[in-house]
Design a protein that fits this description.
- The protein is α/β, with parallel strands linked by helices and 461 residues long.
- It has two domains: 6-227, 3-Layer(aba) Sandwich (Rossmann fold); 230-460, Rossmann fold, CATH 3.40.50.
- 30% of the residues lie in helices and 21% in strands.
- A six-stranded mixed sheet has the order 5-6-7-3-8-9, with helices on both faces. A five-stranded parallel sheet has the order 15-16-17-12-18, sandwiched between helices. A four-stranded antiparallel sheet has the order 11-10-13-14, covered by helices on one side.
- The chain starts with 5 loop residues before the first strand and ends with a strand.
């Protein structure tokens, strides 16, 4: 028997319980669990971000890198803090990808599949969620750690990038370094080269063993199953006066950054009930298009856009328009940095505000609590948004978008960071909304299993 790279015995804290677990050389572990199951606390323990005491013994790891949505968010907030645009005569794009990676030339050949070459001189704040994810992965690999902990590494990536990343990880494992530990919410991203699986639930490692043994376990399968019959009742919509068709018109849409063209000659019309799917690889402009429609992109006033009968830039009040729109996106998630409980964040959806600045009615509070129940977070009603896991935060933002069952629901990779149960939960919400008459959906997604029959229109970028 080899000396284990990591061994944990009889660990019991308020956040984490592990009775006996170890990582042997040449093993590749997938840590599987639902949102809020404790995977993040395990990662923090292994990477030295939390105290673990004498019962956790780490033998072979001299350097550890953790790639996570939380790390992605922390870097974004640091970049915002250092933004000097107000003191310059030009926009400050912040730290570039080249600077983050410490490159003086091009990206090493073994990492070219990440397709970051064209982004090397772009500021980190200007990247899409998927591009930022690939940048931090490249940064972690270039540091050559002994242990690389990957929290949902395939999330936010298009199909081609996912396949290339699978091949790359398999290549790394064939060479023996670094050791890889995957934190996953779905069995779909456990591959034959994963040798072992451990399952977390409510902060406890409840089982672990070989991949085939754990994935065949009926109790594990039941843990990850979604049953819509168990959902609480669906709240009545906060009724809004529907506008005349069309809801959205974009004529000859065009966006560019300097000499880089994102898209041009784009035509889009969305009528009531004309649910629309937006597809395309990372960096193709999906988020940009949705931000144009919501008014969150600076070039929206340079485009011919009409929303609810109001031509953008004709004197309309953007906040009045937004009160009729529900939004879920990586950008909104990234910018939700104000303090507040989960309940307050959901109530903000009544006014489309980041933070709660208006009086709320008893009916609005009732609806907010009902939606927290629908996303299974009633027990976190008074928990600070910042203290929730990334996936739990995403569920709160989904409840925020749906509380008013808006006239237009704009979703940009809404299930990012969600486990299988909660991803199916969100798809069920969309299918239910499509049977009603109030809400029209426009959604961008990389996942083929989210291309639901309700989407009668499609935009390929």
């Amino acid at each position: 028997m080899h000396v284990p790279l990591c061994k944990i015995l009889n660990l019991k804290t308020s956040l984490l319980t592990i009775s006996d677990w170890e990582i042997q050389p040449r093993e590749c572990w997938a840590i599987l669990g639902r949102n809020g199951a404790g995977k993040r606390h395990l990662a923090n323990l292994l990477s030295g971000r939390s105290e673990y005491g004498q019962d956790c013994l780490i033998h072979g790891f001299h350097s550890i890198e953790l790639l996570s949505f939380e790390a992605q968010q922390a870097l974004y907030e640091e970049e915002l803090k250092n933004d000097d645009t107000d003191f310059l005569d030009h926009p400050d794009q912040g730290t570039t990808v080249r600077e983050l990676l410490g490159l003086t030339t091009q990206l090493p050949r073994e990492l070219r599949f990440l397709e970051l070459d064209k982004l090397l001189d772009r500021g980190y704040r200007l990247l899409s969620s998927g591009e930022a994810r690939k940048t931090l992965l490249a940064q972690a690999i270039l540091r050559k750690p002994d242990l690389l902990i990957l929290d949902e590494p395939f999330d936010s990536l298009d199909t081609s990038s996912k396949q290339q990343l699978q091949d790359f990880f398999q290549h790394l494992l064939s060479e023996g370094t670094p050791a890889l530990l995957f934190l996953l919410t779905t069995t779909e991203e456990i591959f034959p080269w994963h040798t072992h699986v451990a399952v977390m639930e409510k902060g406890e490692m409840i089982t672990h063993g070989s991949r085939l043994e754990i994935l065949a376990d009926a109790d594990v399968q039941a843990l990850l199953a979604f049953d819509p019959q168990l959902l609480p009742s669906w709240p009545e919509p906060l009724l809004q006066t529907p506008p005349a068709d069309p809801l959205v018109v974009l004529r000859n849409g065009r966006v560019s950054y300097g000499e880089t063209l994102i898209f041009e000659n784009l035509e889009l019309t969305i009528n009531k009930g004309s649910h629309t799917l937006v597809t395309g690889p990372n960096g193709s402009g999906k988020s940009t298009l949705l931000n144009l429609l919501t008014g969150d992109h600076p070039q929206c006033y340079g485009n011919d856009i009409t929303i609810f009968g109001h031509k953008r830039g004709s004197g309309e009040t953007i906040w009045e328009l937004k009160r009729r729109i529900g939004i879920v996106s990586p950008g909104l998630h990234r910018d939700h940095r104000v303090p507040g409980s989960a309940l307050h964040i959901v109530l903000g959806g009544c006014f489309d505000s980041i933070g709660l600045y208006e009086d709320v009615s008893a009916l609005q509070i009732q609806h907010a609590k009902a939606w927290l129940g629908l996303v299974n977070l009633s027990h976190h009603c008074n928990t600070s948004f910042k203290q929730l896991s990334y996936g739990e935060q995403r569920l709160v933002l989904i409840a925020r978008a749906l509380i008013k069952q808006p006239l237009l629901l704009v979703l940009d990779e809404p299930t990012q960071g969600l486990d299988e149960v909660n991803r199916h939960r969100v798809m069920y919400f969309l299918e239910h909304l499509s049977t009603q008459t109030q809400t029209t959906i426009i959604m961008a997604s990389h996942r083929f299993d989210e291309h639901l029959p309700l989407f009668v229109n499609s935009v390929a970028l």
